[in-house]
Fold each of these.
Amino acid sequence: MEIEKKYLVDTSTLHLADYPRKELMQGYVLRDPVIRARKEDDKYYLTVKGKGLLAREEMNLELSRDAFDTLMKKTDNAIIEKTRYLIPYTYYSDFQMSERHVTIELDVFKGKLSGLILAEVEFDSTEEAREFVAPSWFTKDVTNDSRYQNANMIGLTFDQI
């Protein structure tokens, strides 16, 4: 089960070069249900996602490069590329009555979606997600806006979302 919140952000106060990053390319074999092939630096995955916004089933399987290349040929250029920065963040959770340490996955999109920057934060439970205290540079919670699901952004430009 994947439980995550998504946000639009203002990164003007961040120095992204200070954080580790990954280069991602993902192609969508199907969008309903979501079946995606992803290259994450030098690793390859097949992901199947169920329906939902805040919480949904997700299964990841590691792929060989050849299997990834074969799947990418079946995407009809339904491809998204982005740089993902991994930003540590600590906040106080009333739900757990303690400090919580999470990693913000900050996606800077490329190509047609250039200009779009989304932050994702994953949680262990929906209760924990509801109690999340976002940093001040998070500007809008778009978790429940399906326009910001990657599979729904295929073929669009940043201005069209």
Amino acid sequence: MMKNAGYVQLNRRPVLSEEGAPLELLELHVFGVRLCIRIGELRQALYHGSAAGVERIQWNWMAYVGSRAGIAQVSKSGRALNIELFNGERFTLALDSLQAVLSCREKFATVAVLPPKIVVNGSRDRRLTEYGPVQTCLGTA
């Protein structure tokens, strides 16, 4: 059973780019944090399999796009959009519900939490001394 983490929606209020121009964004609200994915990058990720950048939305006198927070990619099965943040948190949402939001049939789509990635240490050459102390046999003559 997936745990609900938040929702996505199309941006309703203007968010400015670095140059001060308003952007078309998909807003991602998870655990009280407001993130975004640019619509152009998202469409490239959906149709060509590339990665889309996830960015923070910051506030000064108006909302603007801040630093990069992670990446979003279509899953291997092609049924979900997986979002992986640089701090290790991972989220997913169904592509059907995302398409409904992008085509304005729905206002929101639910985002679920994915379990953390298990880091697998690859095999490497090891020395015998890494497993325990080396015992030498010195004969007495």
